[in-house]
Design goal:
- The complex is a heterodimer of chains A (502) and B (315).
- Helix content of chain A is 48%, strand content 21%.
- Chain A has 502 residues and is an alpha+beta fold.
- Chain A has three domains: 158 residues, Immunoglobulin-like, CATH 2.60.40; 70 residues, no CATH class; 194 residues, no CATH class.
- In chain A, the strands form three sheets. Chain A has a five-stranded antiparallel sheet with strand order 3-6-1-13-8. A four-stranded antiparallel sheet of chain A has the order 4-5-2-12, with no helix packed on it. A four-stranded antiparallel sheet of chain A has the order 10-9-7-11, with helices on one face.
- Chain B is an alpha+beta fold and 315 residues long.
- In chain B, the strands form two sheets. Chain B has a seven-stranded antiparallel sheet. A six-stranded antiparallel sheet of chain B has the order 1-6-2-3-4-5, sandwiched between helices.
- In chain B, strand 9 and strand 10 form a beta hairpin.
- In chain B, helix 8 packs across helix 11.
- The chains are: A alpha+beta (502), B alpha+beta (315).
């Protein structure tokens, strides 16, 4: 019974760790692998106009709000002397610039940085359907329109296919007569949109940008968007191509792009550039407000963060020690001393760390061997050793610094109490079991510490343990599993080498 | 001899590994709250006296630094005695005084020391120098064991002792430990003592090892190890088995010495007995432990338990 509970707890821990980590990854886009970069588009809208003299000016630009498939994580306007604010009304988001008066040609900039994000692309509300002014058709146009619609209806089965077929018919040679009549003095998207609306399809004209690297002086491209099966679908009005969200950034849905009071000749042009940003930074910048952002270590002050960065590595180091002791059977001096030494190595780096550690313990052992002649009581002997260790560290730091080694200073990170106990234990071991045992345990400890260091300093482990602290639940489960491991240790193959098959 | 054996061989021969011992036997059968009974030799001794189990005679104990000054007075009239820590491990901190010469005390190895040396030794014991975790300890002064002359002839210095593994009150394996020059008079296998596997059913030596390798004669005394046969074997086994009732520890190592005059005596108990006994016996513990685990009800009479084990053919 206890056995089943145990395995239940272990698998629950593993499942929970995986689940939270996946959810965090999904919702915050923090990558599982460090060093990943994501492409980001920097789009700049340039508004140019000629102001009227001595008139207050108000410029209002339609700007993107919630765009499915994209996340906006940075927006900014630059326009000297203008008051700037972003206003939301029921249907749209607008950037407003205002100034009391201006002379000569004015240029305003609005910059936005966006990144693709498919995490909320499931279903969308039919939030907004603009009312289009009714188009008055002539008799001939009415006939041509009906002709096209009937053909498209005959070839389609639902709103999606109808839209596609209708767009195709506008390009087909056989229908050229009808379509060219309709397009004589009207825009193609408006015509298609109007026909679709009349046919009962929920459609609208969406204005957006085709994302292409390093383009300047671009204008918005109109597209047909229909609401079908609980989501909006984009259609290229020229080619009937679908699923173009990836390269098409919706800027505006209905309403006017630019409204200008107190000026004329307003012109909006866009330029864009593709940039690469570390995925982690991107995730950090935008997701501070999600649940995971709230309960993440990133919400702590930087100083505390670095403490937790070390702290969260500790379980991995402990796991290494558990594996080394239970699977391999390496003897160490003090159960978790190697992990603490490895933590110190993280700051001194490996080789200088090893050298200073061996030096401190060796010098400490020499002085300690003199202490044992003095027959001190245990507590005062340990205390004495602690002070000796401090002196060794201070001396090493000063000498190291004066000789020009930077490592001299980092020596102070070694856990002093642990070092003192290590020296004490080694010294007693030396007296009782001889130098051989001291070397075995000393080497074992350093070996485990080195392995733990190599694992802990790997960028992947550091990245995962810090950004996905819940993965430590899996480490915990593994440790618990190891606690029930009853197999042989590797070293027992040597210990019991007398036993052989006969 | 091959340098390594294989997992398969160990498994097939039923060798008990460290992890399996800890998980399947020690943590399962030994209640942690009972550990102090065996970790503290003074407690074991008092418990044994109450249970009618023979142990070396206790002269006195010293528990406070203040008492150390009285040592000389307390030692009056004692010629041969042992000073040891109550919670020492692995035979650490044991001082054996074999005789007295005027004001001086003669140690087992012939070294003569003054009472001041003994006082300092007691001070060290009290400070916890030899105790497992360095905690303050109690010093025990007890009667010196005069080793049985026959067994003594096999050992180089020191007193040979017999380690018996008791599982749920049933004896499962036994080994005689003989000190060597290499082990410095100590009976610890990892320090270089000779381990002689003793057949539970006929009390005869079955196999012997030193430093993990098979030996036929004692390296110092040159006596043939295969000729060893332990006298009063049943009495000895009974004494060991009684320790189960005494401590309630399911997986237990009993260290027993045979005194020339007083016969078998319990020296100390171990709740985490080592695994080298398998090497000394050239046999694995697992099959035997599994057989004992099958027993549903433990016979309350140690004699019956011993009879049960001696009747089995799985030894």
């Amino acid at each position: 019974m206890i056995k089943y509970t145990f395995y239940f707890i272990v698998s629950a821990l593993i499942a929970l760790g995986c689940f939270i980590a996946y959810e965090r990854h999904y919702h915050t886009q923090i990558p599982f692998v460090p060093g990943q970069s994501k492409s980001v588009w920097l789009i700049e809208a340039k508004v140019e106009f000629e102001p009227e003299k001595k008139t207050p000016i108000l410029v209002s630009l339609n700007i993107p709000d919630k765009i499915p498939g994209y996340k906006i994580f940075f927006e900014q306007s630059s326009s000297a002397g203008y008051g700037f604010s972003v206003v939301h009304d029921a249907t749209q988001k607008r950037a407003q610039w205002s100034i009391r008066e201006a002379s000569s040609k004015q240029t305003l900039f609005y910059k936005i940085q966006i990144a693709q994000d498919q995490s909320d692309a499931t279903s969308q509300a039919l939030e907004y359907l603009p009312q289009y002014p009714e188009i008055i058709w002539t008799k001939a146009e009415e006939l041509a329109k009906q002709d096209l619609l009937q053909k498209a209806l005959a070839r389609s089965s639902n709103d999606e296919t109808l839209t596609r077929e209708l767009i195709k018919l506008f390009s087909s040679v056989s229908m050229q007569e009808s379509s060219s009549l309709l397009l004589l003095n009207k825009k193609r998207v408006d015509v298609i949109n109007a026909i679709l609306n009349e046919a009962g399809v929920k459609s609208r004209v969406a204005m957006g940008l085709l994302l292409e690297d390093a383009r300047r002086n671009q204008s918005l491209t109109p597209m047909i968007e229909i609401y079908h099966q609980d989501r909006w679908m984009l259609f290229d009005a020229m080619t009937a191509k679908q699923n173009i969200e990836k390269d098409f950034f919706l800027w505006q849905r209905g309403g006017s792009l630019i409204e200008l009071v107190g000026g004329s000749n307003a012109k909006v042009s866009f330029s864009m550039v593709e940039q690469n940003m570390p995925a982690l930074e991107l995730a950090m910048a935008h997701y501070d407000d999600s649940v995971f952002g709230l309960f993440s270590i990133h919400s702590l002050p930087i100083e505390e963060q670095s403490i937790f960065k070390m702290l969260l590595l500790l379980p991995m180091g402990a796991l290494i020690t558990v594996l080394m002791r239970l699977l391999i059977g390496i003897r160490t001096s003090g159960t978790f001393m190697p992990v603490l030494i490895a933590m110190a190595f993280l700051q001194t780096t490996l080789l200088p760390g090893l050298i200073t550690f061996i030096m401190i313990v060796a010098v400490g052992l020499m002085i300690r061997s003199y202490l044992s002649h003095l027959n001190l009581l245990l507590v005062s002997r340990i205390a004495t050793t602690i002070i000796i260790v401090i002196f060794i560290i201070v001396t090493a730091s000063v000498v190291g610094h004066n000789l020009g080694f930077n490592t001299g200073m980092t020596v102070a990170v070694f856990p002093i109490i642990i070092l003192a106990w290590t020296i004490e234990r080694m010294s007693i071991l030396w007296e009782e079991d001889g130098a051989k045992e001291v070397l075995i345990q000393g080497f074992g400890s350093l070996f485990v510490a080195t392995i733990a260091y190599l694992v802990m300093q790997s960028t992947l482990i550091g990245h995962l343990s810090f950004n996905f602290p819940e993965l430590n639940l899996i480490v915990l489960a593994l440790m618990m599993l190891m606690g029930r491991y009853t197999g042989y240790r590797l070293f027992e193959l040597y210990r019991f080498r007398e036993f052989k098959d006969n | 001899m091959p340098f390594l054996t294989s997992f398969k061989t160990l498994k097939r021969l039923g060798i008990l590994g460290m992890n399996a011992r800890n998980v399947n036997y020690i943590s399962k059968y030994n209640d942690r709250k009972l550990y102090p009974l065996v970790d503290d030799k003074l407690k074991t001794k008092l418990l044994a006296q109450k249970a009618g189990i023979n142990t070396p005679k206790l002269f006195f104990t010293l528990s406070r630094q203040h008492d150390v000054g009285e040592l000389q007075k307390r030692l009056e009239g004692l010629n041969a005695f042992v000073l040891k820590p109550a919670r020492g491990s692995g035979g650490k901190g044991i001082m054996v005084i074999a005789s007295r010469e005027k004001e001086l005390f003669v140690k087992a190895n012939g070294e003569k020391v003054s009472v001041e040396v003994l006082m300092r030794h007691v001070t060290n014991i009290l400070a916890g120098l030899y105790s497992l975790s360095g905690t303050p300890d109690v010093a025990i002064c007890e009667d010196l064991i005069i080793a049985d002359s026959l067994l003594k002839s096999y050992s180089y210095e020191g007193v040979p002792d017999i380690r018996i593994i008791i599982f749920r009150g049933y004896p499962v394996m036994a080994m005689l430990r003989l000190a060597t020059k290499l082990s410095d008079g100590k009976a610890n296998l990892h320090q270089g003592a000779v381990g002689v596997g003793i057949n539970l059913q006929n009390a005869q030596a079955s196999h012997a090892v030193m430093e993990q390798s098979k030996v036929l004669v004692h390296p110092d005394t040159k006596n043939k190890l295969s000729e060893i046969e332990i006298a009063n074997w049943h009495e000895l086994l009974e004494l060991a088995c009684k320790c189960y009732e005494m401590t309630k520890l399911g997986y237990l190592g009993a260290d027993i010495v045979i005194d020339q005059n007083r016969g078998p005596m319990l020296l100390e108990l171990n709740a985490r007995p080592g695994l080298s006994i398998q090497v000394a016996n050239a046999t694995g513990l697992v099959p035997r432990l599994k057989e004992i685990e099958k027993i549903k009800e433990i016979d309350p009479d140690p004699k019956n338990r011993i009879d049960f084990v001696l009747r089995q053919n799985w030894f």
